[in-house]
Amino acid sequence: MEVSVFDSKAALGEEAAEMGVELISKVLKEKGSANIILATGASQFEMLGELVKAKVDWSKVTVFHLDEYIGIPETHPASFRKYLKDRFVEQVKPAAFYAIDGEGDPEAECARLGRIIKKNTIDVAFVGIGENGHLAFNDPPADFDTNDPFIVVDLDEACRRQQMGEGWFPTLEDVPLKAISMSIRQIMKSKTIICSVPDERKARAVRNALEEPVSPLIPASILTTHKEAYLYLDKRSSSLLRRD
After folding, report:
1. CATH number of the domain where residue 177 is located
2. What tens-digit pLDDT sequence spans the chain (244 residues)?
3. What is the domain count for the chain?
4. How is residue 120 annotated by DSSP?
5. Pairwise CA distance, residues 235 & 32, whole Å
6. How distant, in Å, are the alpha carbons of 86, 109, 210, 217 from that of 141?
7. CA 226 to CA 199: how far, in whole Å?
């Protein structure tokens, strides 16, 4: 994994988006189409803000969605499909956007999305790391073994507190207990992974992911085993790393 540290969240977002655009453009030139994964949450604001400005033929890019709560409508302020539609899809009009619908039968939705993504190779995955070290909504201990592309997961208290702390929900009780998440193995199948992680509240998770042994107890630690993973940090999120 290649780790880069920037002075600010803005610089982090700009560089992560620039790398993503370079990779997507290369794939479009070689294949004529590309498939990407987009994450959500406060950590992705700056990167997505830069990505939508890029000169990319988005009409040839298919977008997959990392995770979604079970039981909230798309109109809810915390809906991740709403987040991506507002901040990306409606602005750039990609070839397709495979949103996760958490309002129906979650197992059927996992199966539906699984059938679709199995037919596609993911060229670039844009992800983040949670305060508890989660990758997508794979909270610790994450399932490193399932081959199912999408799974139903339980959200632990630390994860739910993060969602409340970021302002998506008024109280902890309002945060759903379950979600649909892309699985660890499916994320790791991506040719390239770009991970954007700003803010001091993520510093412990970053340190654990980079400096502790790879473990389901630190889901994001699996990224260190990927051959083409790029981690973008700011000074605050990198503050607990060893300075060798």
Report:
1. 3.40.50.1360
2. 999 999 999 999 999 999 999 999 999 999 999 999 999 988 899 999 999 999 999 999 999 999 999 999 999 999 999 999 999 999 999 999 999 999 999 999 999 999 999 999 999 999 999 999 999 999 999 999 999 999 999 999 999 999 999 888 999 999 999 999 999 999 999 999 999 999 999 999 999 999 999 999 999 999 999 999 999 999 999 999 986 5
3. 1
4. S
5. 37
6. 32, 23, 17, 5
7. 24
Q: Is residue 33 assigned to a domain?
A: yes
Q: Tokens representing 169? A: 């929900």
Q: What angle do CA 207, 210, 213 make, to 5 degrees?
A: 110
Query: Residue 112 sits in which domain range?
Result: 2-216
30, HSE (Cβ side, Cα atoms, 13 Å):
9
What pairing do the DSSP bridges indicate for beta strands 150-154 and 178-182?
antiparallel
H/E stretch holding 127 = strand 124-127
What is the sign, positive or negative, of the torsion defined by CA atoms of 137, 143, 145, 147?
negative
The amino acid occupying position 36 is: I
Judging by DSSP bridges, how do beta strands 229-234 and 96-98 pair with one another? unpaired
Give a yes or no: residue 231 inside a domain.
Answer: no
The three-point CA angle 123-127-128 to 5° equals 165
The conformation of residue 203, written as its DSSP 8-state character, comes to: H
Is 56 domain-assigned? Answer: yes
Exposure of 33 in the CB half-sphere (CA atoms within 13 A) = 11
In a domain, 244, yes or no: no
